[in-house]
Amino acid sequence: MHNQPSVTELVQSVKNFVDQTAMPELTGRAAFHARVASNVLATILRDLESRDSNDAAELGRLQALLSDNGTSSIEKLNRDLRDAIRAGDLTIESDQLLDHLKKTAIAQLKVDQPGYSGLADALKE
Amino acid sequence: MSDTQEFNDRLQSVLRRVYGHNTVLQSANRLSGGASQETWLIALDAESGPSDLILRRAPPGAEQSMGSAAIGLENEAKVIRQAHQGAVPVPGVVHVLDEDDDMGSGFLMSRIQGETIARRILRDDKFATARDVLPEQCGRALAGIHAIDSAQVPVLKPSSGLDQLAYYENIYQSREVCRPIFDLAMVWLRENAPAPLPTVVVHGDFRLGNIMVDESGLAAVLDWELAHIGDPREDIGWMCTNSWRFGHSDKRLGGFGDLEPFLDAYAASGGVEIKPADIDWWDMLGSMKWGIMCMLMYESFRSGADPSVERAAIGRRVSETEMDLINLLERQRHA
CA of A31, closest CA in chain B: separation in Å? Predict the structure, then answer.
């Protein structure tokens, strides 16, 4: 399958158009939505760059946390984790649980809103 | 006759009824709000009366689409009037629309000058003095709100912290989303709920964005549509929720101040004695609630009800509240 330009390059080109051409022409609500759209495109670019490695790291942590033999999907393991939390089998007293959830939240937020204050707080601690 | 002409004619009649026959409507400009809740800036030429007013209105037929927690504009006007009697800074309600007005439900209120955009209030030099005095002013205002005689506002529904936990937990569990941090927070909240305090009239959305601030501080408390009967700590915890600190997480109270001077002023003005640690549970409840609200707003994109990029983007803000919840849960473990 052809990949020139790559998905990343295509998204970048649309972001360039929004930032440099469209946004300066717009006012009011349309300008606001153009800025949101530009931010969404930036999120997509970060997601494209880091999803594979984030998912792999999350899967590895989930397998260790739930003693999985490596056959379950990340979705299945997340549902198992949720069920264990709801059942009270895993609580905030578990270092491994909190470490996993914190690393997962940090990785997600670095993609979604890297400037969020709570992320800076988490990285400081 | 055009809709605009009809609207203006009806508004003109209302203004004459309130301010006398010589009152002339100069203009009505829609400021903001969704389909069900409109806000209008009204300019008028009155012999005796103000030169401008604000109209908050739900057009005829719009009431059904309002959020289930919203109390409706007529009730909002009643609560604002009670708050005014309690010396809470609020816009003066000058007229509540009735059937004769034929404009839907809503009310006219005085226009207060000031800033509501949180980032400006937190950042601009002109609000430096305001930021210094705002914690105490908010403490006094909230004590005034919590002192409102609930018998005078009989429409408000009771909703405790545990009621809200159950409400949002149900929304979360009924959707096909799996975000274990929310499950962990919900379990912790359920198992660590503090004993309830005697209930009061709660504003329900007391935070930057819903208060108007001028250079000398708090000018008015706005947006009363989520008022209810509940625990006084809910309003305090909501203002402390990190989502409402707008990037200034080191200032626990709304990103502008410390909690202690707020609580001191609150107690000195008749509120109950509360310690900062008493707010922790409500702070976490606030992050959980805002996270589920973001999921719901994204849901309106996914369902096609609101296809805007803004609604899509807010789905990627749920992770902000996950981060806050983890930070708060870690602190509780070491507490």
Answer: 12
ipTM of predicted complex: 0.96
| Token digits of residue B295 | 């999921």
Q: What is the pTM of this model?
A: 0.93
B326 touching A (Cβ < 8 Å): yes
Helix/strand/coil percent split, chain A, to 5: 75, 0, 25
Identify which of A124, A82, A89 has the alpha carbon closest to the alpha carbon of residue B330: A124
- For residue B328, is it left (φ>0), alpha (ψ between -120 and 50) or beta? alpha
- Tell the residue number behind the tokens 């992320």, with chain if given: A119
φ/ψ (deg, to 5) at B196? -65, 145
- What is the DSSP track for B83-127? HHHTT---PPEEEE--GGG-S-EEEEEEPPP-B--HHHHHH-GGG
Task: Please write the tens of the pLDDT for every residue from B16-42.
Answer: 998 888 889 999 999 876 666 889 999
- Residues whose CB falls within 8 Å of the CB of residue B74, separated by 6 or more in sequence, listed in order: B96, B97, B105, B107
For chain B, say whether A95 makes contact (Cβ under 8 Å). Answer: no
Closest CA to B146 of B193, B75, B86, B221: B86
Task: Give tens-digit pLDDT for B99-110.
Answer: 889 898 999 999
